[in-house]
């Protein structure tokens, strides 16, 4: 298990990572209602259930035909999560993805209808 995975599990269980071999105090021990191994496709995973309705962490299991396809899906999910996080932090947005050009086109069409002849 990697350091990242260990920290992620500790955070989800509200446990403290122990760097020294000692008996943990009560407030350093995390809590899980249920831990079990299961299979998704051909991969065995370990599921941890904390018993809370509102969790801080979730896992999204992706399956696909090629690694490139899975990389694209992962990047799309990460972009969506980043967008949601930024939206929660600061509700100010700037239009993008060609929205300026669309708005300009509609404005020019509206102005063009009002002008007659070669003035368009």
Explain this structure to me?
There is one protein chain. With 120 residues, the chain is an alpha+beta fold. The chain has two domains: 57 residues, no CATH class; 62 residues, no CATH class. A two-stranded antiparallel ribbon has the order 1-2. A hairpin with a 2-residue loop joins strand 1 and strand 2.
Write the layout of secondary structure elements.
Blueprint: H1 3-13, E1 34-40, E2 43-49, H2 67-89, H3 99-114
Antiparallel strand pairs: 1-2
Largest sheet: spatial strand order = 1-2
Mean pLDDT: 81
Determine the number of helices (DSSP H or I, runs of at least 4 residues): 3
Find the structural class using helix and strand composition.
Answer: alpha+beta
Radius of gyration equals: 25 Å
Can you give the helix content as a percent range? 40-55%
The SSE string, one letter per element, is HEEHH
Tell me the overall shape.
elongated
Q: How would a crystallographer describe the biggest sheet?
A: 2 strands, antiparallel
Report the β-strand fraction as a percent range.
Answer: 5-15%
Keywords:
single chain; 120 residues; alpha+beta; two-stranded antiparallel ribbon; 3 helices; 12% strand
Précis, in short:
This protein has 120 residues and is of the alpha+beta class. The chain has helices at residues 3-13, 67-89, 99-114; strands spanning 34-40, 43-49.
